[in-house]
Amino acid sequence: SRICVITLAEAHPLLQSGKTIKNINYQISANCSRLQNKVSGKSKRVWLFALGAQFLTELAPLCRISSSDGEEYTIYSCIRGRLIEVNENILSNPALLQEKPSTEGYIAVVLPKFEESKSITQGLLTQKEYEEVLLRRRSSAS
């Protein structure tokens, strides 16, 4: 399937540092709220048609997460596609981002264009490649 679920990476500071999440905000600017994304169409549940869905680029912010120590993190789409859904459950229960980041604590669901989906998946890192990138980052930081 071409559906992409956006979550926090294992190495994200919010998952590594034991910080407490204070707030999640899908309001990107005065004129743009990801909560106002409205997907319609006959096959909405299967997401075959994403009519009315906001289009995202790789650098489009999805939300901002504030931690109790005052740090703020902007979470970006990282892929081009239509925003199918945002996870409103994390607004009332932000701890889901930390407790279940790859399941109930997801941030959003994005549907890439059909013709771009193959190149997107080919550009993804395997788990092993991801771990190697993290190792290099950690060793260059020390």
UniProtKB/TrEMBL annotation:
Q: Note whether Nucleus occurs among the keywords.
A: yes
* Pfam families, per the entry: GCV_H
The record ties this protein, via SUPFAM superfamilies, to: Single hybrid motif
State any GO BP term from the record: dendrite morphogenesis
Keywords attached to this entry: Cell projection, Nucleus
> GO MF terms on file?
actin filament binding; actin monomer binding
The record's Gene3D superfamilies line, in alphabetical order, gives: 2.40.50.100
Q: Tell where it localizes.
A: Cell projection, Dendrite; Cell projection, Growth cone; Cell projection, Lamellipodium; Nucleus speckle
Q: What is its main location?
A: other
Q: Which domain of life is it from?
A: Eukaryota
Which family is this sequence assigned to?
A: Belongs to the ABITRAM family.
Q: What is this protein called?
A: Protein Abitram
